[in-house]
Specification:
heterodimer, A: alpha/beta, Rossmann fold, 2 domains, six-stranded parallel beta sheet, four-stranded parallel beta sheet, B: alpha/beta, seven-stranded parallel beta sheet, 13 strands
């Protein structure tokens, strides 16, 4: 039950649920995906038609979203949460229910939950997970994609974590964080996340197609403050202008880019790319920058390493720090000055940057292939749920 | 049949919401087309603030589209807090109109009464207004015979027109854990008798009576867990919570677990308990009693309202606090297993002449052994911050209050806030800067000391 589902959805959690569904279906499980008609997680407008369809052997049921009931109130409460204020439980509930809701999905599940062996809800922050994950907790598996963010500390989420039949975690730091925040039951396991590895790369094809010349760093994902995009833009502008670096910033994903005027020509927004083009972009980049401190896995970091590209990452993310320390293939920064120096290194020493990236591919292949992840997922399904 | 249920609804935490969603699930299983209208945004199909003055009109317009309307009634949902008698009567008349309009359109209106004020004089304006309202309803359902009698007497409705329904008729268990599993989940030892007082923390629930009774009895190898949270953050309830905190803090073996409870977590606590204590000061029927019965958990309850009629055989009903304490003592005797033999002899006291440090080490060793036996956690080690710094760190940043209340009031509050923001916001920011600076100043010496 991802909040969104579709080939053009930008979002790591949603993408993984799609691949997980396909992987389980290929292994003989009967899989249904229950989701919304929304494509955009800002507007939650119903863009896909409601109803049932078959997608590669998976039954996909879409349900319409109800318009957010009180967006202004939600924004105010959200600002308070982000400022570290303590909200009463009543305020937390108002925050959750003031945003998008999906009553038809809730009632479909109320009618049919008993027909499923397992109900997989993900990620934790969305209404679909919060509301639907508590209908039949005895058969619900939570894939939280937990970040160390103010929302995770809300008391509201305690029952979701403590009551689920099982929890699939992606990394050791996420596991530690979950223990720190919630009274977990016995049934939780780090199953990881899979990355498709049968890829080919043609960096020159990417450059030709998009007319991009010279070295560039890449950012892929949602362009929004919570992902660290604005900070990256600011630092990039300061370093390339101040140090006259020969470096561009290429980005793909959703959200407004809003580059500062003095570097507008050096920030290239490619929007949504197909899979092959995306892979080529990772291979063509001098480095991939992950500025987000709120990561539960960071799929794009894996994509970069698979393509043989150096990762420059915000060290405030325990998860990405853990990946970089284990793989030995990423530079970490703790503030914008260190990020500046990382960018200078990539511009001045491109061969060294490429050499540093080499262990990354092996790291991904050793830990995060789908067959290995699906083995772990199936083992937990067998262990935690009943066939009847 | 097309049915509309008017009720608080999940994912809001609310006993009526939990009751309603189970009835919705049953009606849908029976093939009915059920929609839900809730007073606040929820998983319901529609929402309408039912305590607003114009809400009955909007409700009337909506009710006419359904073959059957089921209202889960609680006064807080329909009457604004602190409503004057005039406003109360006005609301009752308006609701009577809405129900009559639904009936005129061919719909059947049923009301499940979860709470009503039976202390009203039958001739009071409020009672008369509500009587008019109830008369437009085809079927009023209460949960005990005693409540039926009180309802009939207060509102002048013939008892024949009132149905009594089993409070738990739609209930289903939300956990499959057994007692041992539930205790593991909750981190509680298996070998202690656990009394449980659970639900929203409100004066009429009488959780304080359970704590006082437990303190008088002090049964060995037993604990009292008070679990729940305040439903409505009103001064009277918050004062009661403060009192309860203090009471529990002064009672060895008692613990107050404040927090949000899902239906599943609620049932896990019930399954983990040996005895459920319901020391209500007043109540007409109890959902907790029904859920405890579903799991065959023994219950001690006060003989108030309709509990005597609702309680299954085996329930211990008490009249007052003395009887409550006696019943708890008897229950503890019945269910407390004998202590493990000689467990304190595992670590002998040091020989004569031992230093204070050696004695302390043995005291601590024995305490640790006791904790292992009891399955309780060791005391937290002191952190690097001093107590003062910790208190400061717990203080949340100052923020402007989030506008609450009815939409019109929220709008006024928002406008007011925007008007004064140019003056208020810098003050808030400055206070928060001062807070951080004080915290830094207090923490810095602690950290230096910690590093030495």
């Amino acid at each position: 039950m991802p909040p969104r589902f579709g080939p053009d959805i930008i979002g790591g959690a949603e993408l993984v649920v799609a691949e997980l569904s396909r992987g389980l279906a290929e292994r003989g499980w009967e899989v249904e995906v229950l989701t919304t008609c929304a494509r955009d997680h800002f507007t939650w407008a119903n863009e896909y038609p409601a109803g049932v369809e078959d997608v590669d052997g998976i039954t996909l049921r879409r349900f319409p979203t109800a318009a957010p009931a009180a967006p202004a109130e939600r924004a105010e409460l959200e600002a308070a949460i982000l400022a570290g204020a303590r909200l009463t439980l009543d305020e937390q509930q108002r925050w959750m229910n003031a945003g998008v809701r999906v009553p038809e999905l809730y009632h479909h599940l109320l009618d049919h939950a008993h027909e499923f062996r397992a109900l997989v809800v993900s990620p934790y922050l969305f209404w679909t997970t919060f509301a639907c994950g508590q209908i039949a907790p005895e058969r619900t598996i939570l894939r939280p994609c937990l970040h160390d963010e103010p929302f995770a500390s809300l008391e509201l989420f305690q029952p979701l974590f403590s009551g689920a039949a099982g929890i699939w975690l992606q990394t050791d730091p996420e596991h530690a964080l979950a223990h720190r925040l919630f009274p977990l039951g016995e049934r939780h396991r780090v199953v990881g996340e899979g990355i498709p590895t049968d890829k080919s790369y043609d960096p020159e094809r990417f450059r030709r197609r998009h007319g991009i010349e010279g070295p560039f760093v890449l950012y892929a994902g949602r362009r929004e403050g919570a992902k660290g995009w604005e900070g990256l833009l600011e630092t990039f502008a300061r370093v390339v202008v101040g140090r006259e670096l020969d470096l561009s910033l290429v980005t793909m994903g959703v959200g407004e880019v809003r580059p500062p005027a003095d570097v507008a020509g050096r920030v290239v927004d490619l929007g949504f790319l197909d899979d092959a083009d995306r892979d080529d972009a990772f291979a063509a980049a001098a480095a991939y920058v992950q500025p987000s401190r709120y990561e539960s896995f960071s799929r794009t970091v894996m994509e970069a390493w698979l393509a043989g590209t150096l990762v420059i990452a915000n060290g405030a993310s325990d998860v990405v720090r853990w990946h970089c320390d284990r793989s030995d293939a990423g530079l970490l920064y703790d503030d914008d000055v260190e990020l500046e120096q990382c960018l200078v290194f990539v511009a001045d020493q491109p061969d060294e940057a490429a050499r540093l990236a080499r262990p990354g591919r092996r790291y991904v292949l050793d830990h995060y292939t789908w067959p290995a992840v699906l083995d772990r997922v199936e083992a937990t399904l067998e262990e935690w749920t009943c066939a009847s | 049949m097309r049915i509309l249920m008017v009720t608080p609804y999940p994912p809001a935490r609310d006993g009526i919401a939990a009751y309603a969603v189970q009835e919705v699930a049953r009606l849908r299983r029976e093939g009915h087309d059920v929609e839900v209208l809730s007073p606040t945004p929820s998983a319901a199909h529609h929402h309408l603030d039912l305590a607003r003055r114009c809400a009955p009109l909007a409700l009337a317009a909506r009710l006419r589209s359904y073959d059957r309307v089921i209202v889960q009634f609680h006064p807080d949902v329909f009457y604004p807090p602190g409503a004057t008698p005039g406003r109360h009567v006005e609301t009752s008349i308006a609701l009577a109109g809405a129900f009559a309009a639904a009936a005129a359109a061919g719909g059947e209106v049923e009301v499940r009464v979860h709470e009503a004020d039976y202390n009203l004089s039958r001739r009071s304006l409020r009672a008369l207004g509500m009587r008019l309202m109830w008369r437009q309803v085809r079927r009023v359902v209460v949960h005990t015979e005693a409540e039926r009698a009180s309802f009939a007497a207060t509102f002048g409705i013939s008892p024949a027109g009132l149905a009594v329904a089993d409070h738990g008729s739609h209930f289903s268990p939300r956990t499959t854990l057994d007692r041992a599993g539930a205790r593991r989940r909750l981190g509680l030892p298996e070998d202690e008798t656990m009394f449980l007082a659970i639900g929203f923390i409100q004066p009429h629930k009488g959780f304080d009576r359970a704590v006082r009774a437990f303190a008088r009895v002090r049964p060995p190898r037993a604990r009292l867990e008070v679990v729940g949270s305040v439903r409505v953050e009103e001064p009277a309830y918050l004062d009661h919570l403060d009192e309860l905190r203090a009471l529990v803090g002064a009672t060895p073996g008692a613990a107050l677990r404040e927090g949000y409870l899902s239906d599943e977590a609620f049932d896990v606590w019930l399954v983990a308990a040996d005895v459920v204590v319901l020391p209500y000061r007043h109540i007409w029927s109890s959902g907790v009693l029904e859920r405890a019965s579903m799991f065959d958990r023994p219950v001690i309850a006060t003989r108030v309202g309709g509990l005597a009629a609702q309680a299954p055989p085996g329930t211990v009903l008490v009249e007052d606090d003395d009887e409550l304490a006696e019943a708890m003592q008897a229950a503890a005797r019945r269910s407390t297993p004998p202590p493990p033999p000689s467990r304190l002899e595992a670590l002998p006291w040091p020989p004569p002449g031992a230093s204070r440090g050696e004695v302390m080490a043995v005291v601590q060793g024995r305490a640790e052994a006791e904790r292992r036996v009891r399955g309780t956690a060791a005391p937290l080690a002191p952190g690097p911050r001093s107590a003062g710094a910790s208190v400061l760190a717990r203080l949340p940043p100052l923020r402007s209050p989030v506008p609450a209340g009815r939409p019109s009031r929220r709008l006024v509050k928002r406008l007011t806030r925007r008007l004064v923001a140019w003056q208020v916001d810098p003050i808030v920011a400055h206070v928060n800067r001062l807070h951080r600076a004080v915290l830094d100043a207090v923490s810095a010496p602690d950290q230096r000391l910690g590093g030495e």
